[in-house]
Every structure is written in C-alpha cells, then in structure tokens.
Amino acid sequence: MKxxxxxxxxxxxxxxxxxxxxxxQCNDILKFAELTGDFNKLHFDRNFSTSSGFKDVIVHxxxxxxxxxxxxHSLDLTNGTILAFAGLKDVxxxxxxxxxxxxxxxxxxxxxxxxxxxxxxxxxxVKLQGINQEDKAVLEAELVLIIKRKSEQWRKTxxxx
Length: 161
What we know:
Elements: E1 16-23, H1 26-36, H2 46-51, H3 61-74, E2 82-93, E3 102-114, E4 121-131, E5 137-148, H4 152-157
Antiparallel strand pairs: 1-3, 2-5, 3-4, 4-5
C-alpha cells in the first residue's frame, strides 16, 4: 500500500524515515557538470584528484546534496502537501563520494511549529543524513519545509488521520 502524503499534523518530532538506495554513476557527474558548468578537475581528472589526496575522482558535493533531496522526494511523504522548500541549514559534507558509491537517506523530524503568517501551513525541519554502502555518513543537513495543514473540516471529523 502506498503511503499518502503527510500533512503538518501527521509529522511528529523524532519520527524517522529511510529511503531506498541510489548508486552514483560516471554519467551522473557528467550530466551535473553540463547542467551547472562545474567541470572542476576534482570531478574529471583522476591524476589531479589522486594527487590532491582523494582515492579517485569525486562526486560534486552539490550533486550529492541534490540526490539526497531526490531520495527525500522518493519517499512520497510530502509530494501532495508541500507548499514551499523554505531552505537548508547546517549542510556538512562529511566524506568524499565516489562513482560506484551506493547512497541512501536517513531522515528524522527535528522540529515543527505552526506559522502565524500562514494559517493553512506549518514549518517542519527534517534532519537529513546521506549514508554510503559502508554505513558512513557522507552528508548532513537540515531541510526546512512549509507543509499544508489539514483543513478545518478534517481536523474536526478526524478524516485523513
């Protein structure tokens, strides 16, 4: 059974979610570089990246972050209830990511609060952690989302709980 999108009220602090896995390919690096214009040698020149202390060419940090956001989206938790992607906080790249690494996302609801400026929504902060095949954290960040609240009718009747 497919999980329906969650409303603001459905999220609880400490609630955890885990995504499926995504393997990084050479083509991912190339497509990202073509899209962004970031053709830094660290991502394409093995001699340069190994002489810089890495074991091979490394995946762009922003590509890794984008994949983590895609893995959050793949959970299908907010696809029908998100009103805005309000920001990212405390992004930290922990260790390099390489072609062939298999990443998954662990996430935890860190906090939430009602928004006075938007009665139909609340703010939810999600701690994200990108994990590789060796169970090591490659990235940590906090995702700030504005999520729809249930309608007054649903809150009164309990429909959608």
